Amino acid sequence: MNGVQDHLDYGLSIVFIGFNPSIRSGETGHHYANPRNNFWRILYQSGLTPRLYEASEDGGLLKLGYGFTNIVARPTRGAEDITREEYKQGRQLLRNKLSQYRPNVACFVGKGVYTEYSGSSKADWGFQNESVVDGVFDFVAPSSSGLVRMKMEEIVGIYRRLRNFISEELS
């Protein structure tokens, strides 16, 4: 099964970074394609997008200033199927992508994604005190997986902080 194509460009406001594509995303070729994943609803409810997008429109969000990538490209059933070697290689590839494209914000969709990338043992929600790539703000947001046990309002509230930051940066 193929990975899912990155959607990256220069001048982006946010690059959303996941662990790796789900099997469904690998089958469709689109980020956050599992119907039980709340990613697209979270973006809309937080005000990051003007309407509810579908996974098949992921490439179109470049026009809004949003990009997509993953720390590991190989689709799996779950993050527990990712090997240590894949993480090691993925960390370096991700640093290279962020260094090259320099988005305003690297939004890690899940604390585990951020801790695997940064090597930190823990992280708080929101902006981190230090960034891994100079000039790129690191923001940790809850996973959008349907398995997450946080209330949707709480998740949306954390993403809303990101929306507020981007709104202020652009004004």
From TrEMBL:
InterPro entries, per the entry: MUG/TDG, Uracil-DNA_glycosylase-like, Uracil-DNA_glycosylase-like_sf
> What keywords are annotated for this sequence in UniProt?
DNA damage, DNA repair, Hydrolase
According to the UniProt entry, its GO molecular function terms are: pyrimidine-specific mismatch base pair DNA N-glycosylase activity; uracil DNA N-glycosylase activity
Q: Which residues form the Uracil-DNA glycosylase-like domain?
A: 9-152
Q: Which domain of life is it from?
A: Bacteria
Give GO terms for biological process.
base-excision repair, AP site formation
PANTHER family in the record: G/T AND G/U MISMATCH-SPECIFIC DNA GLYCOSYLASE, G_T MISMATCH-SPECIFIC THYMINE DNA GLYCOSYLASE
Q: What is this protein called?
A: G/U mismatch-specific uracil-DNA glycosylase
Whose protein is this, by species?
Fontibacillus phaseoli
